[in-house]
Amino acid sequence: MSISSPKQPFPLLIIISVIFLLGPGPIHARDAHVINFRSPNLYPESLAWDPHAQHFLLGSLRQRIIAAVSDAGVVESFLSDTDLPAGASFLGLAVDPPRNRLLAVVHSHHPFSPFNALATYNLRSRRRLFLSSLPSSAGDAANDVAVDHHGNAFVTNSGGNFIWKVTTDGSASIFSRSPMYTAATDNPADGDVVYGSLGLNGIAYVSKGYLLVVQSSTGKVFKVDAVDGTARKVLLNEDLVGADDIAVRNDGAAAVVSPTRHLWLVKSINSWAEGAVYDKVEINVRRFPTSVVVGDKDRVYVLYGHLDEGRIGNSDRQSFGIAELRSKKEGQEDSIWIFVLIEKHETV
């Protein structure tokens, strides 16, 4: 029997190395900025930076409050919203400076009745502008939020693997429900126990008109069109399994944090069609960092909110922290190599 066959196309993987310059890195003469503060049983899941007031804003897992923390560690009760359902938590936060608004994801965990909403507050009066109920089904879990230049808010659903949109007048709808999100969960990157069932999580808006969204269980990053919700998977040199939050610096680099692993620094040269991890910064996993934000002077901060402890329910903690994390490689290396796998079909 002949073993020859007609010429047929077959996939050929070609490795292309792309080099790009980071440019002058930051000068690290000063010590990293560390803020330790006290707030009884706050257990914050997320933080945001208010560039006008020059302070951090933090939600609370156990209380219907948002706290403000100065760079010196002075804590102020920013607002309390007791009209929210009992058991509601403030999760993801986003500041909308042009409209002086604070956007806060509200979610109720078991055993409380399911509740998913986006609360919007005036940053100056601290009064609630509206509360947008997010159309939900059983198992849906509102998690993080980002805001675009027009004031539209985008909220991730970690249970249902889709994204809601809330307009400036408070109208809420399902914005992006891509098959790519669920396809990725069918092939998880590894057996991460903590994040095995947690889907779309951290989200950031990029000024070019798209969103970057991380998926905790698979470590995938998606680029989502902020107009029509079309999603594309970003081709990375490694999966960011356990990724909880993402923030984008002014130079375009993304910082992604995992509470159980590290802080990844990721760069792209083609508007996030592909990207590469160029550094991994050590974190204090015992303090369980769940959020990352870009603060003053483009500094990257993580939140040590001890959320794993807070979820247990029988703990009583006073102290929490916000810490600046910096790359040792930035400013030391002239370049970063990106290895991109491109599938090409050829005939032989």
From TrEMBL:
The keyword Signal applies. InterPro entries: 6-blade_b-propeller_TolB-like, Sensory_adhesion_molecule. It comes from the Eukaryota. Residues 1-29 form the signal peptide. GO terms for cellular component: endoplasmic reticulum. Keywords: Signal. This is Uncharacterized protein. It comes from Mucuna pruriens (Velvet bean). The lineage of its organism: Eukaryota, Viridiplantae, Streptophyta, Embryophyta, Tracheophyta.
